[in-house]
Write a structure and sequence with these properties.
The complex is a heterodimer of chains A (209) and B (321). Chain A is an alpha+beta fold. Chain A has two domains: 49 residues; 128 residues, Sortase, Chain: A (Beta Barrel), CATH 2.40.260.10. Chain A has two helices and eight strands. An eight-stranded mixed β-barrel of chain A has the order 1-2-3-4-7-8-6-5. In chain A, helix 2 links the parallel strand 2 and strand 3. Chain A is elongated, with a radius of gyration of 28 Å. The N and C termini of chain A lie far apart (87 Å). The two termini of chain B are 46 Å apart. Chain B folds into two domains: 285 residues, no CATH class; 33 residues, no CATH class. Chain B has 321 residues and is mainly alpha-helical. In chain B, helix 1 packs across helix 8 and helix 5 packs antiparallel against helix 6. Chain B has eleven helices and no strands. Classes of the chains: A alpha+beta (209), B mainly alpha (321). Chains A and B meet through helix 1 and helix 2 of A and helix 1, helix 3, helix 6, helix 8 and helix 9 of B.
Chain lengths: 209, 321
């Protein structure tokens, strides 16, 4: 190798090493002066980074529930994980995890803040009051059965109460972990014209065989 | 003195690199996120208007399901043109200090007219009238949500305006710093043009390296493709803009990284080639020949050295022979 080429390579490497040190120094300075703001921005960006399943028809894969009443895995937001059957009024509908308007178009929605069947806490389901969903809720009576068939088991509930609440009375739909209660609600009046501001809630407790 | 000069050269080159980093970051943001025309272009290219039209009409249907009204009442209450006009008004509110009113009055009027036609001949009670008004309000609210209309657009404009002003001032300051550091490099490098080129290459290389590291850092910390704000169409626009910003930064970074490397290498190559070929124009690299006084001093030094003296004499004898 010619001597001048060796010298050139040596000089170039020295320049690159110095450039690397200068870059590191700049990064350290940026971290010192704007580290907190950068961290805040990253946290904010990650908070709004949600991987929502666009396809609501995706089904939740098999899972199990352990002795501590915890699911081994949870369904993705927007995926179908169960069916709800109310034989008394001929309801047999798919249940999706989530409560967006888009989900409610396909069937029954599961409020993401509530427990799953079998976990021992409050479960909140909702659906439209259209004819093919919960229009016949007024025909339900105390003692009627609701069956929820999930990918990890079948759960039966018995209706013990029905209430008419205002759309903003969220305290009437309490989420607690002491007792497994299924709360299913729809808009009221059933034959309403316009925007329904009331909700018809059916309360059912788990029946263990 | 030589070492001090060398340190100064590196300091100037580093300041130039920092100035370039700030300049290109500001430039990228100014030409993307803070440019109304660019945002409008992205909105148009991503099919935002069609998507919003789809969402709005689809969401209206959810209110129809529980309203007891026929789906036909929604016909013609909004058009794609309404969405285009209202979106442009929102952007004008954000980017310019012109307050354009965005409301759903036209939608409300059309919906009321459709409902009146649908309920013609029916006995509508006062309670039902109130319920119908609430229905119209909810649909209007849904439309405003779909087109991403906020009540605090003015606040966003103020923040944008303030930020743009800061960017503008910083940009000018950075250009002054860049010019000063470039001048400093020219002075400290003197007539050695290869050295000036080498240090400019050093600045470009550092800037490029910083941008590449920054891109890797952002990509490992944030998944831009999952950022969700308001609705999918709006999120898609935001993702496109952020991806474009990162893309531009990494593109410029790679260009400067390789450009800088080439400048460093070529300037060193040219310098060393001429130096070792004996056509060295840079005599200043050999201080012993700088002046007559030093040349005499150097000769005296050689004469005092017995080994060098013997070698010199041998050479003279060989030449005579």
């Amino acid at each position: 190798m010619p001597k001048f080429l060796g010298k050139t390579i040596k000089a170039t490497i020295i320049s690159i090493i110095v450039a690397l040190f200068v870059t590191i120094a700049i990064i350290v300075c940026v971290n010192i002066f704007a580290g907190a703001q950068i961290e805040q921005t990253i946290t904010l960006a990650n908070r709004v980074a949600i991987d929502i399943k666009q396809e609501t028809e995706t089904e939740f894969k098999e899972t199990t529930i352990n002795e501590n009443q915890k699911l081994a895995s949870y369904p993705d937001y927007g995926s179908k994980y169960a069916t709800i059957e109310i034989p008394q009024i001929g309801v047999d509908l798919p249940v999706y995890f989530g409560d967006t308007l888009e989900i409610l178009k396909n069937g029954v929605g599961h409020s993401s803040g509530s427990y799953f069947p079998g976990e021992g806490g409050s479960i909140i389901y909702m659906g439209h009051n259209s004819e093919n969903v919960f229009r016949k809720f007024s025909e339900l009576q105390v003692g009627n059965e609701i069956i929820v068939k999930t990918t990890y088991g079948e759960f039966k509930y018995k209706i013990y109460d029905m209430q008419l609440i205002n759309e903003k009375e969220l305290d009437k739909l309490p989420v607690q972990r002491d007792k497994e209660i299924l709360m299913v609600y729809t808009c009221y009046p059933f034959n309403n014209i316009g925007y329904a501001t009331q909700r018809y809630v059916v309360y059912a407790e788990r029946v263990t065989e | 003195m030589k070492k001090v000069k060398s340190v100064f050269r590196y300091v100037f080159a580093s300041v130039l690199a920092i100035s370039l980093i700030i300049y290109f970051v500001i430039n990228t943001f100014s030409s993307t996120l803070f440019d109304k025309n660019y945002v409008l272009k992205v909105i148009d290219e991503t099919g935002y208007y069609d998507k919003i039209y789809g969402y709005a009409t689809s969401n209206f249907e959810n209110y129809i399901i529980q309203s007891g009204l026929d789906k036909s009442v929604l016909e013609g209450i909004i058009t794609r043109e309404d969405i285009v006009n209202d979106t442009q008004k929102i952007l004008t509110n954000i980017y310019s200090n012109i307050e354009e009113t965005v409301n759903a009055d036209s939608l409300k009027t059309k919906l009321h007219a459709n409902i009146d036609t649908a309920t013609q001949g029916m006995l509508v009670t006062e309670e039902q009238k109130a319920s119908l008004n609430a229905f119209v309000d909810e649909v209007a609210k849904e439309y405003l949500n779909a087109i991403a209309h906020f009540d605090y657009e003015k606040e966003i404009f103020n923040a944008c305006h303030k930020f743009s002003f800061v960017l503008d001032v910083t940009n000018k300051l950075v250009l002054i710093f860049a010019a000063v550091s470039l001048f400093g490099l020219m002075v400290t490098c003197g007539k050695r043009f290869y050295r000036l080129i080498s240090f400019i290459g050093f600045s470009l290389f550092t800037t490029g390296l910083f941008f590449i590291i920054m891109n890797i850092f952002v990509n490992t910390k944030i998944n831009i493709q999952t950022i969700t704000i308001l609705n999918e169409a709006f999120s898609f626009v935001i993702r496109e803009i952020l991806s474009a910003i990162l893309g531009q930064i990494v593109g410029k970074g790679l260009l400067m990284f390789f450009g800088g490397f080439v400048l460093i290498f070529v300037s060193n190559l040219v310098h060393n080639y001429f130096k070792y070929q004996g056509v060295n124009e840079d005599k200043t690299d050999k201080p012993a020949y700088k002046s007559k006084k030093k040349r005499i001093k150097n000769r005296k030094k050689k004469d005092k050295n017995p080994k060098l003296l013997a070698e010199k004499n041998n050479n003279k004898i060989t030449e005579k022979k």
